[in-house]
Amino acid sequence: MAEVLALIDYGAGNLHSVANALKAAGAQGVKVTSDPDVVRAADRIVLPGVGSFRACAKGLKAIPHLVESMTERVHVGGAPFLGICVGMQLLSTRGLEHGSTPGLDWIGGEVRTIERTDPAIKVPHMGWNDVAPTPHARGHEVIEPGEAYFLHSYQFVAEDPHDVEAMTDHGGGIVAAVARDNMIGVQFHPEKSQAYGLALLARFLEWKP
User: Fold this and answer.
1) What is the pLDDT of residues 115-132, one digit of tens each?
2) What residue intervals traverse the membrane (predicted)?
3) 140 is a catalytic site residue
């Protein structure tokens, strides 16, 4: 029987592209859903996200019992979880875009604007860039070195450096991925990262943390 993968629909993600990429990577039971009961029964959970941290956090928390069902399934049930772009940023304690907005606080840290230390560095950070796993990477069976597609103006600053799974360089180090226990978040877009992204999604589908 195929696993059920809950792709969270809260009005803040390019769901069609992510769903197609997951299917291309081998997922058979993808359910695009905002139903807490579906989430509680899912084998894996993917949280996408595009746009501002505040809008995404507001949209996610506006759906009754959705955050509670995700928390229950991931933290109690142990379901593997993948956050993509703003979906990764929402794992943080807070986002500082348009004021301070609480995140899920699953991985301590905050989301701040990318600081331009060099006038030649452009923000947003957009395009292909390296993904370099850290020496202490915990979810190394999912995140491997390569090149991925980024599009963001804000960066995840983790409280615990051991939660940083991979880095990239854009006028200085920027967190490319975070991980803790059965949770992984990637700042880049696997669904736009061609062969590298599909291989990463395939590893996530097989991941047994």
Assistant:
1) 877 777 888 999 999 999
2) none
3) no
